[in-house]
Write a structure and sequence with these properties.
The protein has about 325 residues and is an alpha/beta fold. The protein folds into two domains: about 1-180, Aspartate Aminotransferase, domain 2, CATH 3.40.640.10; about 180-315, Aspartate Aminotransferase, domain 1, CATH 3.90.1150. The protein is built from eleven helices and twelve strands. The protein has helices at about 15, 20-25, 45-50, 75-85, 140-145, 165-180, 180-200, 225-240, 240-255, 280-295, 300-315; strands at about 1-5, 35, 55-60, 65, 70, 90-95, 120, 135, 205-210, 215-220, 260, 270. Strands 3-6-7-8 form a four-stranded mixed β-sheet. Strands 9-10-12-11 form a four-stranded antiparallel β-sheet, with helices on one face. It has a two-stranded parallel ribbon with strand order 1-2. Strand 4 and strand 5 form a beta hairpin. Helix 7 (about 180-200) runs parallel beside helix 10 (about 280-295). The radius of gyration is 21 Å and the shape is globular.
């Protein structure tokens, strides 16, 4: 099984074996054998790994959740074709990117003629109300598992196909169509990206904006000015994970906006807002983010962050 650095496919025994972040793997060995890392976004590395014809499958997120890393145009289509050439399955993990998040029902729908053998869906499939997931597979794959009547229940789970989960899933799919969620994700995502890009010339720690629909990664980088460089270095010397918290915490405490750090040891904040946000919501976020950036570009940011962390630790 092949997987990429920074990949996140879940935390059960099999999924953690395909986890590209050591923080999630540590303490849970032994892993499923023969799970191998290959370089991100590198077709040559993929072909080298596949050429031995001992690979069962390549499991990949169309856009990585940890860091919001986006593949080069054409990569996923070529990767799927390469997998089929060498007899491996191409598995698209659309748990985070599926159901309209990136501006189409599946993220791979925007990647040309990608032919997955399996697609994994969850999260938005129930609108956030009930745990629900789905695995879509090609007929040939299905028939390998459920090959006869006596194997009809060879792979199942106790709570699979629960009535409440199925009702929530159907309702979410109906709402997806009725609200034109994918189009709204494209429109509002573009507004967010344009607004964030407009802020980059003003704030030297704003490095990059990665966006597809309403899945947005805001990456920060070391500033050039001497005083700000000292504050940046001080925070990173304390802990490589701290800087992004200096963005996430005030967005929540001062502006009541929930977002998240995009992964361990990354100066990236991830936005995955509701697919029904409107222009007023976008303006609200951009105004709040501008306020946070103004305060972040002051040399007192390490002390302010430590004070917030300490207050939260004491008072919960």
């Amino acid at each position: 099984m092949l997987y990429a650095p920074k990949a996140f496919h879940g935390l059960t025994s099999g999924a953690v074996s395909l986890n590209g972040c050591q923080s999630f793997r540590q303490g849970f060995a032994p892993y499923v054998p023969d799970c191998r890392l290959i370089a991100f976004n590198d077709l040559s590395a993929l072909e080298s790994a596949l050429a031995a014809r001992d690979v069962a499958a390549f499991v990949i997120e169309p856009i990585q959740g940890k860091g919001v890393n986006i593949h080069s145009p054409g990569y996923l289509q070529a990767a799927a074709q390469m997998c089929h050439k060498y007899g491996a399955l191409f598995i698209a993990d659309e748990v985070q990117t599926g159901i309209g998040r990136t501006g189409s029902f599946l993220a791979i729908d925007q990647e040309g003629d990608v032919e997955p053998d399996m697609v994994v869906l969850s999260k938005a499939l129930s609108g956030g109300y009930v745990p629900v997931g789905a695995v879509l597979v090609r007929g040939a794959v299905w028939e390998k598992v459920y090959s006869s009547l006596d194997r009809a229940v060879v792979h199942s789970n106790t709570f699979g196909q629960g009535a409440m989960a199925m009702a929530a899933g159907l309702a979410s799919l109906a709402a997806y169509d009725e609200t034109n969620a994918a189009q709204n994700a494209r429109d509002m995502g573009a507004l967010l990206k344009n607004g964030l890009e407009a802020l980059k010339p003003r704030f030297e720690m704003l490095k990059d904006i990665r966006q597809r629909g309403l899945m947005i990664g805001i990456e920060f980088g070391a500033p050039k000015s001497l005083l700000l460089k000292g504050a940046w270095s001080a925070l990173h010397a304390m802990d490589e994970n701290l800087f992004a918290q200096a963005v996430v915490i005030p967005l929540m405490e001062d502006h009541r906006i929930i977002c998240q750090v995009a992964g361990h040891n990354q100066d990236v904040v991830k936005l995955i807002p509701p697919l029904v946000i409107n222009q007023d919501d976008v303006r609200w976020f951009l105004s709040a983010f501008e306020d946070v950036m103004i305060k972040l570009h002051r040399v007192t940011v390490p002390l302010n962050l430590l004070a917030r962390l300490g207050r939260n630790a004491i008072f919960g």
